[in-house]
TrEMBL record:
Chief site of localization: membrane
Domain ABC transmembrane type-1: 84-311
Name of the protein this chain belongs to: ABC transporter permease
Domain of life: Bacteria
Transmembrane portions of the chain: 88-110, 122-143, 188-208, 246-268, 288-307
A Gene Ontology biological process term: transmembrane transport
Lineage summary: Bacteria, Bacillati, Actinomycetota, Actinomycetes, Kitasatosporales
Keyword field contains Cell membrane: yes
Membrane topology term: Multi-pass membrane protein
Localization: Cell membrane
UniProt KW keywords: Cell membrane, Membrane, Transmembrane, Transmembrane helix, Transport
Amino acid sequence: MLGVLLALTVALFALQQVSGTDPAKAYAGANASQAALDAARARLGLDEPVLPRYLHYLSGLLHGDLQNSLRTRTPVASDLAAVLPASLELAACVLFLAVLLGSVFSYLCASGARGAGIVRAILFSGAAAPTFLLGMVAVLVFYGHLGWLPAGGRTSVRDAPTGPTGLLLADSLLAGRPDVFGDAVTHLVLPAVCAAIAPAVAIGRVLVDGLTANLEADHARTARAAGLSERAVLLRHAARNSLGPALSMVGIQAGALLAGLVVVEKIFDWPGVGSYLDASVAAADLPGITGVALILGVVYVVLNAVVDILQVVADRRLALG
């Protein structure tokens, strides 16, 4: 993890140097004089050699300093602290839905239950559509035509709690506001479902392959000979032995989900990291862009480390090996 994160800091710092964008001009303004640009370069440390600048950049990261945004003129860490909870809440709901839908899909297919073909057709059709198209169609149907769900945002309640966690679902429960909780859930439905369908299919397909192979293995035949029902064989013996590849796919899909947050948040006007990144790109705010990339990279690396640990917990053969 440390090696990957160190390589990530080198890559982000190098991209800032070769981007072709002048941070001093973005900081001082397009019409700034040469003296103002020189002062901005000195203020930003751009007049120092590359190696001392990187070491200064790395030292700042170790102390939680992600530089100052050239767009908001405030620390990027403070900006991200304000928008990150919204993205984490949405990402957690998407990942939960993806795992749930993928598990149901794999169980129906592996057990040959009635309705498996319908579920497969719905999920595969949804996964085949681009997320932005799926989101726009969902808004047109469920908001514009049916009026069942809101089109975007986190909540329509004006006095919704803003702390202590920044996660609206948790904060509404802590504040004893079931009205805010219900409203937040309705705002989460469309973006979470639209973003969860594609990873659900990927997770489900891997899990189906594992379940099918384990149901034909010797230990499954032995369990059937001992009198266990097909459902018990599937849940007790095949499921756990199939979790390893499925957990790996969960980690991969979590990384893809983080990358896709920009599109989802843009469509549904979600005030998270994706919206912040979109505004930073438009303003050529390199500290804001690299700050978001670093945070998402850290989350991705940590998630994959957690997945590796869960694989060993789920399948003791990995630990023994």
